[in-house]
Amino acid sequence: MPMFSKGIVLSQHKEPAFSKPVVRFVHPQTDSLKLDLKQIAVQTEQDAIIELARLARIVDERDGKLLYRKLRRSQGKAKIIIADAVDDEPYVSSRIGPLLQMGEEVADGLELCCTVAGCQEKRIMVYKMITDLETRISHSIQKIKVMRVRGGYPAYQQKRLSHLGDMPRLVVGVGALIHLARAVYQQKQQSTVFLTVAGNCVACPMNLEVSLGMTVMQVLERCGLTQQPTRVVCGGSMTGVSILDTENTLITHTTRAILAVRENQRDAHYTCIGCGRCEQVCPSGLNPMYIHRLVQTNYYAGLPLFDPQFCIGCGTCSYICPSKLEVATSVATAKAYALGQVPGGEEEDEAPEAGAASPSPAPSEPEPNPSREQSPDIPSLPEEEDDAQDDDLLKDLPNAE
Amino acid sequence: MQLKQYPAPHIRMSQTTRGVMADAIAALSFLYAMAFYYHGPRSLVLGLFSVFVCLLCDILCSAISKKRYNLRDFSAVVTGMILPLMMPASVEYRIVAVAGIFAIVVAKVPFGGVGHNVFNPAAAGFSFAAICFEDALFTYPPADLKLPLWQTAEFTLATSPAFVLQLGGTPGYDSMSMLLGKYPGPMGATNILVLIACLIYLVSRGTVRWSMPVSFFATVAVLAFAFPRSAAGGLASVGFELATGLLLFGGIFLLGDPVTTPKREMSKVAFGITSGVMVMLFRHFGNMEEGITFALLLMNAAVWGFDMVGERIARWMRRKKLGTLEGEKIPKKA
Question: Class for domain A15-186, per CATH?
């Protein structure tokens, strides 16, 4: 009996953006920022690469961590380097697109990572379940073997046995690898990020290389709008954040896509019919239906049985719901409660007052807040955090072949 | 730019609750086509009348409780279509009306309407009618008899093979006519081949999960083989028990109701097995020829228990699997 779902296969809608060339849309001042090589005083080649990654302020777009920290942690430990181009969310092709068109730089970045880690093995990981591509993804890019992750949507949750086993590994996003190669060979700071602009309001969907700190509106105007969108999303179609102020929301390191969508959906007030589909698709084996019901009725005391803290925020439960309920929002509320972050306020009181209203926004968003006010000239950096734990090396990774 | 804030995810599956109900309606309409073929237009009029009664009750109840009625929610239509198919084609209109009113007014709305009802409305309505009008509900017109729209009294009504089985006899119909439904029986429950096609359709559309009907029918088959009611022996008993009465119909359309059945796969299997045992107990020791609706109503009351036990097992499995992965990050108690 499948305890954990194998995910859902989504129709990917990558096509108009994917096959077009990646267009540069950069701020001329930030684009020409060069590294100051006089600061570097290290002995070994490995340390030089790590120092360059630090100076170039490269952030891995797949988890928002600083690349030099990941490199330092894997130094001499990782046995295999994996370039992550798994774009499993529909409409998003901001990793697989640059991979196919800037293969040399990705290969250079992988080679540099291998030098740091002191290993030979390297792979590129792409998502297999993309059926609507006009361009074929070959089996090797720049003589590096391409692994294909199978399975349904939360591709990172596919935990089938891998031939890689427990081999210590370092997984870096394709964008970070390109920026690493540029930092080392061209002494360029990371001032850009790759993102997909798509949606039914976008005149010319494409993959862009955009300067950090540009506003969402600038990017949308670059691609053109055919009609007024009702919803603009920063991030993927499944996990992204719907934003209101396009003029003041800036592009950050982890922005993977901007979607402008117009839909004329009518509010159909269906009730939950208990079909159990959300339970069947949940990759963590939760029962979102009961969690939703408990949150709706403010019965937080019943939550521990349902383990909402295991939610990974993939949103499959809301996607599959035939009654179009906001199940994922309820589960996020319940997760925040279970982890001690009482929704709605700071007080440590009992739950019923705290998490009262259902239309309150989800308290824990999976992405960092994209609407930080910052000067457009300085690329924003995530806050420094202690690197004692959360080791990326032994993190479970999807199986690939 | 007029933007609204929406929570993630920003794409949704195209199937709606309305689509789920429409699947059931499509499957049921095949059975009405077969009933029309055997019994003439009266079967269709019965179906329309029952749907009308159920919809009217639902709308009136919504009006009384001052809720806005969602016309696109077809659950009352499905209940209304299921009810006459479980009855003989010669049934009087008032019996259908009583069953429909009981189903909606007593079994569905007081519990909170769609999605909250504890008991299956169609099963409850049929059970109520079966207690009140036992003679009228369990005598059937012969197959291939075209019935007039109004008077049915002048026809001789026959008993069904389910009744013969209950008396300990062996039904005298060959397997081909059993498969095609050429024997006296409930209007929609005799066409075994069409019912199997309906099951395949519903399972392939994802409206009904395969686990529950399969476990239910397998349990019934095993019990029928082990404890045959007729003298014909084990294998023949399996065929008779599965093909007669409301068993196949109930296993597909009553057990396939998502609201009144457990949610988790293992709970569904356990529920199917227990329901099968319960139905066979009713058949062996009950005093009516068809006890599946009573068995199902009893089981419906236990759905919450099945779900909670399933959740506990699932939590144990989840912590065993994920607890090692995330280590101390998981709080012991919320």
Answer: alpha beta
Q: State the pLDDT at residue A134.
A: 78
- Inter-CA distances, B272 with B3, B116, B279, Å: 48, 21, 10
Domain boundaries, chain A: 15-186, 192-261, 277-354
Measured CA to CA in angstroms, residue A193 lies from A360, A366, B48 at distances of 32, 19, 61
CATH topology of domain A192-261: Ubiquitin-like (UB roll) (3.10.20)
3-state secondary structure of A34: strand
CA gap A120, A352 in Å, rounded:
56
Number of residue pairs across A and B with CB atoms under 8 Å?
172
Residue B8 to residue A240, Cβ atoms within 8 A: yes
Nearest CA in chain B to A230: B3
Closest to B49 measured CA to CA, from B28, B77, B72, B22: B77
Residue A60 dihedral angles phi and psi, to the nearest 5°? -75, 120
Pick the residue from chain B with its C-alpha nearest to A259. B10
Q: B147: pLDDT confidence band, cut at 50, 70 and 90?
A: confident
Q: Helices marked H in chain B — which ranges?
A: 17-39, 41-64, 75-85, 93-101, 121-132, 134-137, 161-166, 175-180, 192-204, 211-226, 234-243, 247-249, 265-285, 292-301, 303-326
Which residues of chain A does B20 touch, with a Cβ-Cβ cutoff of 8 Å? 273, 275, 322
pTM for the model: 0.83
Query: Which has the closest alpha carbon to A257: A398, A67, A61, A104?
Result: A61
Confidence bin at B325 (pLDDT 50/70/90): very low
CA of A144 to nearest chain B CA: how many angstroms apart?
30
Using CB atoms within 10 A of its CB, is residue A186 exposed (0-12), middle (13-18) or buried (19+)? exposed
Q: Which of A17-26, A386-395, B229-238 has the lowest mean pLDDT?
A: A386-395
Which chain A residues touch B13 with a CB distance below 8 Å?
319-322
ipTM field: 0.86
Query: Span A333-355, mean pLDDT?
Result: 60
Q: What is the DSSP letter of A152?
A: S
When mean pLDDT is compared over A313-317, A318-322, B81-85, the highest value belongs to B81-85
Query: What is the CATH class of B17-145+157-317?
Result: mainly alpha
Residues A3, B317: C-beta atoms closer than 8 Å? yes
Burial B16-32 (b: 16+ CB within 10 A, else e): bbbebbbbbbebbebbb
Tokens at residue A60, please?
Answer: 């891995």
Q: Are A328 and B9 in contact (CB under 8 A)?
A: yes
* B9: nearest CB among A3, A304, A319: A319
Q: B288-312 burial, b for 16+ CB within 10 Å, e for fewer? A: bbbbbbbbbbbbbeebeebbeebbe
Interface of A with B in 155-174 (CB under 8 A): none
Q: Which residues of B touch A351 (CB under 8 A)?
A: none
B328 touches A at CB < 8 Å: no
* Pick among B10, B307, B317 to test the A interface (most A CBs inside 10 A): B10
Beta carbons of B7 and A329 less than 8 Å apart = yes
Evaluate if residue A384 carries a pLDDT over 70: no
Residue ranges per domain, chain B? Answer: 17-145+157-317
